[in-house]
Amino acid sequence: MKIKENDFGVLSNGKKVKIWTLSAGDLKLSLSSYGAAWTSLIVPSRNGIKDDILLGYSGLDGYLNNGPYIGVTVGRFANRIKDASFEIMGMRHALNANDGVNSLHSGPRGFDKLLWKSEAYEENEGVYVRFELDSPDGDCGFPGQMKAVVNYGLTKSNEVICDYQAKVDKPCPINLTNHAYFNLAGEGNGNILNHDVVLYSSSYVQVDKTGIPTGNIVPVDGTIFDFRKRRKIFLGGSFLKPFRGYDHCFAVDGERGKLRPCAEVHEEDTGRSMAVFTSQPGVQFYTGNFLKNAAGKHGSVYGKHSGFCLETQHYPDTPNQKGFPSCTAAPGKDYHEKAVFKFDVG
Ligand code: BGC
Predict the structure, then answer these.
(1) Which phi and psi (to 5°) does residue 233 adopt?
(2) Counting Cβ atoms within 10 Å, is residue 89 exposed (0-12), middle (13-18) or buried (19+)?
């Protein structure tokens, strides 16, 4: 196992951005301290060809202008909050709208656009980077001070480990996730529509045309949302039209709070497979519908569907939905969620 630290660049305020590269098993993962972002993940194919399976940019500049949130850690609240506002303890809190009248990924300046403190370490069977952020009271409109600690790592068994923790000094809804875009054929290598997908979800979070939950968790049975048996990503059907593809939160089967199977994705030509596990109630399956000729790594151009995201998370708009599993952290009640992405070739 190996840990490497390099300079990624300098921000306009003079602060240095680090890039960490972790090697373990057959994988190599690079992480930037700006946005606590996953910048590359090298995975061998069935024939031993090592490709970078993460969409991203060649340098720091790309991450400073990262409209599609490629690779970043999203917080305090990933996904949408209706009317960019919510009430907690009898107080209404206004966030900044950046998706029509709603807020997406906490508004125009979420955790993805901040420099995180970072430090690498080795533990048991893996190598990790610990990212830390202090978010002041009122940051992006959220109540109370928050300290976020996110650990990303690689194990000898070809797993990417994600551990999300937060402490608050006032009750606040928290939803931390990573926004990696995967293409198991290699970034820049066509679209992801030929990937085979399994989602361990018997139901999904029904949303209106703007992606805001109606409050109903609906069975996938007999619908285009049924991925319980391995199948290709089929984008036909009027249901997906307003979203240009999948952009939906699936309710992960099994006991919430426990790490359990969430998804499997397989790419036939390269033989690469990824299995995802999460402790969170849901996963946003997003098929890169709004990618529009983004200038990616090494001259790659990312168009619609050139990557997919599996953002393990709490359901969208949880702060306004009494019926959804709570994601409110409070003094003495820390936030702690985990996800694992395990890779296999065969
Ligand atoms: C959202 C999409 C959005 C994308 C990039 C995803 O998490 O669900 O609607 O376009 O992030 O911001």
Answers:
(1) -80, 105
(2) exposed
Does ligand 1 come within 6 angstroms of the Cβ of 186? no
How far is the centre of ligand 1, averaged over its atoms, from the C-alpha of 121 (Å)?
32
Q: Which of helix, strand or coil describes residue 95?
A: coil
Pocket mutation for ligand 1, best pick of 98, 249, 286, 289 (most atoms within 8 Å of C-beta): 286
Q: Is 195 a catalytic residue?
A: no
To the query of whether residue 132 is one of the catalytic residues in this protein, the response is no
Please tell me what DSSP assigns to residue 175. Answer: B
Query: In this structure, which amino acid lies at residue 44?
Result: P
| CA-based radius of gyration for the chain | 19
- Left if phi > 0, otherwise alpha if psi is -120 to 50, otherwise beta: which for 115? beta
The CB of 165 under 6 Å from ligand 1? The reply is: no
20 close to 30: Cβ distance less than 8 angstroms = yes
Q: For the whole prediction, is pTM greater than 0.70?
A: yes
Which is the closest atom of ligand 1 to the Cα of 67?
A: 12
- 197-228 pLDDT, tens per residue? 999 999 999 999 999 999 999 999 999 999 99
- Check if the beta carbon of residue 271 is closer than 8 Å to that of residue 45: yes
